[in-house]
Amino acid sequence: MQTSNLDYGRVIPIFALTFVDILGLTIILPLLHLYAVTFGATPLEIGLVAAAFPLAQLIGVPFMGVLSDRFGRKPLLLISQITTLIGFLMLAFANSLALVILSRVIDGLFGANIATAQAALSDITTDENRTQGLGITGAAFGLGFVIGPVIALLTLEFTDSLALPALIAALYSFLSILLTLFVFKETLPPERRSLTRSRAPWPIRSSLLILLILMFAQQVIFFGFESLLGLFTLSRLGLLGQGNALLFVFVGVLLVIVQVRFIGKWSRRFGDHRLVHLALGLLALGLILLSLTPAQPHPFYVRPLVEYEIAQLRPSGTEAIIGEIAVSLPLEQQRGVGGILWTLFAVIPISIGAGLIRPSLNSLMTRQVGPEHYGRVLGFSAATVSAANAAAPLLGGLIFQQMGELAPFLWGGIIMTVLFLVSLFAVRSVRSVGERSDLSTTRTP
Prior knowledge:
Helices cover 78% and strands 0% of the residues. The chain is mostly helical.
C-alpha cells in the first residue's frame, strides 16, 4: 500500500534523466533559427524548422504513450532517448536545410521522453501525492530552461560552429540513456501491462476533454508570454539579451521553488481542482499586471546603443515566421527603476501559476483513467501542449504586430480570466475513476 510520502529512491532517478534530457533540448532551442539561416532559409522555412518538432509530437507522443502502457516505461524511454540522440547528431552534421528539418521531425515523432517519465512517476505515486511527483518533472524542466540556454551562449562564445552545441546536446542525451539503462527501474510490471492488452480502449470522457481543452488554452497563452516577453521588455524597458536572460532565470527559479517546495503540500491540503483554479487566477492576474507595465527603461539604458545592437541581431523564430515586427523603443528621458520593479512584481503570480497548472491538470487527467492507461493519457496531454507551442508564437506575434506590445498580454489575461471562471464550474465537477465507481456502488440497491 503506497503512502502519501514520495519514494525518493525511485523518484530521483526519474528527475535526473528528465533534467538531463531537458538540458539537451534547451541547448538547441535558442539556436534553431540559426541552423536554418546557415543554409539560407526563407522566413517560411525558418518557421518550418521551429514548427517541425511540436507538429511531429502531435502524431508521435500519443502513439508512444500507448506503447509504454503495453510494453513498459523503460523500453520506450530508451527508444525515445536513442532517437533524440540520433536527431541531435543529424543536426550537428547536417549539410542541408532538409536534414535540419528531418532531425527535428525524427526527434518529435519518437521523442516521448517527458511524457513517458511522467507516466513512470504516475505509476509509483498515489492520487494524494501524484501532483507532487509530476511537479518534480516540472522542476527538472524549469532547471533545464535556466541552465540550457546559458550553456548554449557560453559555447558560442568560444566557437562560431553550430555543430558544437548540437554535439553537447547529443552528449547529454547519451548520458540520459546511461541513466535509464543502469539507474532507472521499471515502474510498470508485466502483470499491469496485461490489463492494457485485455481491456477495451478507454473512452474519452467529457471530463477528460475539458481538462485537455484547459491544458491547450492555458499553454497557448503562457507560451505566447514566453515567446514575446523579450520583445515586450525591449519595447517597455529597453532590455536586451542579458537583461532578459536574468528575467528568465528569475522566472525559472520561482517555478522550481513552487514545484519542489510547495505544490505537494498545497495539493494534499486544497486538492488539485482548487490548485487549477488558483493557477489560472494567478496567471490571469499576472498577465493583466504585465500589460500595465510603464514604458520606463532601466537606469543604464542608452537608446542609440540599443538600436545598434538590434541592427546586429538576426531575427528570432517568431519574427521569421510572421515577418519583421516594428518595435518602438522607450525614450532615454524616462529612465528609472519603476518599469523593472513592476515587471518583476507581475511575473511572480505568472511564475507561481505556471508552476502549478500543468502538474495539477495532468494529475486530474490520470484520475480519469485506470493505471493501465497513464502513458496514453499523458501522451495526449503532451501532444496538446505541443500543439499549443506550435500555435502560440504565431498567434501572439500577429497580435503583437497588429495591436501593439501590450495587446498579447492584456488579451491573454482576459482569456485566462474566462478560463478561471469556466474552471470554477467545469473542473469542480470532475471526478476520478475511483470516485465514480464508489458513487455507482453506493447507488446500487
